[in-house]
Amino acid sequence: MSAAGAYKKPTKRSVMDKTEQKLHEVISVKKRREEREEELMLLEEQRDERERAQMAEEFEEREEQIEEFNRRQNLLRAELRIKDGRETPLDLIVKGLRIIDGEKFDDNAVLDKPLWELTPLMPLKDLEQLEEEASSFLNTGQHARFWKALNECVRDDLHTRQGKKNKKTDGINASVLSDVTELLNNKGITELEKMGKEIQSMMDDTDGGVDVQFYEAVLAKLPLFKARAVVTAMHEEVQSVVAPLRAVQKKAGKSWEEVLAEEEEEEKPGPSPGPSPAPSDDGPGPSPSPSEEYGDGSMSPVLNPLHRFKDEVIIDEVDEAAERLRIRASLIAQYRGEDDDFSKEKAKGFANDEGVLGDTDEVSLKKKYEWEAKYKPRKPRFFNRVKCGFEWNKYNQTHYDRETPPPKFVQGYKFNIFYPDLIDKSKPPRYLLEKSDTPETVILRFTAGPPYEDVAFKILDKEWQLQARHGFRSSFERGVLQLYVNFKRWRYRR
């Protein structure tokens, strides 16, 4: 049996080898499982980190959207308050910044003083509301520095009114603070920055012989006065832009008599003795005042010499009306003119078995369109044919001949609808079959969109041949919709 290979008793060594091999396989499987678990944990951590980053990005974007929405709402509320005549100082500041950015207003009224000069006179409730509304403009584009400075000024006044102590200035003598205020007042931002650098370097190099308390008070108050300088500089810029606009608006609001009187006052060089010089004939002189023209009570205008109008273009009313009629006629002729596609289709004429589709077959549509307010509806042009003929079937061959042919009947139609000025060329025109008022006919309606109206025709209600080999065509190319149809022929069988 052992020689035949039916059974071989395992040796001790072979059993040990198999056991060791299985043990190695178990260890390797366990190791792979641990590695796979570590990979899964790493992937899970990466997924969580990616989700946290995505959520943080979405949250940040959401916060930006909320801030932008609140800023727009504040601007809208400011516009409404300005229109109603109940504007706040902050509304006038926003209006001034918009004027600097190039916006136009009918009323160019802005603040006459910087805001930090007005806040000490405001009630505490209005000051708190001002601080809340001004903080919403902190991240506003190119004027972010101004809004930050304005918030600094408003916050300082609010804390002072509320009795909150400033840690940097707490404990400093009031006389020292008054000297600091006197030192920093009416200085520009450049001077304040330069002063701050000098004081900081002086305090770093001090050896005990410098009044540290005074300079510490200056450094503590320096940010507030820098903010005031920024607000004052922006206020002066707004005033420099608004002043010319106010002058133009003031001049535009005067009557023409006042403007003429001011110009005459400006042109007068002063009182001079002697007779006034005679007017020159070389050019037009000044127009006489209304009191000179109608001083005697007559309402007839003064007859001016012709040379006063030598540089003016004189238009005759009759000639102008004739010119307008001519231009109008040319435009109408151009509008009603036939384009190339329409002319080509019309030049093809008719085949022996074709005729024109009569005007009586067109159906009048009374329809309102959603785009009528934007585009003026107009009717598209069309050139349609009707195909007529007869068949030599057994009945016709028996009762008719070539000299006396059988009566013709409608075998199909050819529609050519022209849409050269279609607004949305990506959407081709469509045709629809609708119910007619007679059982043997249907209404074929064509619709395309602005600026064309729908057109409809009454045709026979018969089944169409929808194969191209039987002459069917439905296409829209180069602004022309073509629909060619033939009716099915029913053959008589016994």
Q: How would you portray this structure in words?
A:
This protein is an alpha+beta fold. Among the domains are: 87-252, no CATH class; 341-486, no CATH class. It contains 13 helices and ten strands. It has helices at residues 12-83, 89-100, 115-118, 124-135, 144-162, 174-184, 189-204, 212-252, 256-267, 290-293, 317-336, 340-347, 394-399; strands at 354-356, 362-363, 381-382, 385-389, 409-418, 430-435, 441-447, 455-460, 473-477, 480-486. The strands form two sheets. Strands 1, 3, 4, 5, 9 and 10 form a six-stranded antiparallel sheet that branches. Helix 1 (12-83) packs across helix 2 (89-100) and helix 5 (144-162) packs across helix 8 (212-252). The longest helix is centred in the first third of the chain and has 72 residues, at 12-83. The model is unreliable at 272-285 (pLDDT under 50).
Instruction: Find the structural class using helix and strand composition.
Output: alpha+beta
Count of β-strands? 10
Judging from the principal axes of the Cα atoms, what is the shape? flat
Percent of residues in helices comes to: 40-55%
- The first-to-last residue Cα distance is 92 Å
The averaged pLDDT comes out at: 76
Low-confidence stretches: 272-285
- The sequence of SSEs as H and E is HHHHHHHHHHHHEEEEHEEEEEE
Into which percentage range does the β-strand content fall? 5-15%
Number of helix segments?
13
Q: Return Rg in Å.
A: 47 Å
Biggest sheet record: 6 strands, antiparallel
List keywords for this structure.
single chain; 6-stranded antiparallel sheet; 4-stranded antiparallel sheet; 494 residues; 48% helix; alpha+beta
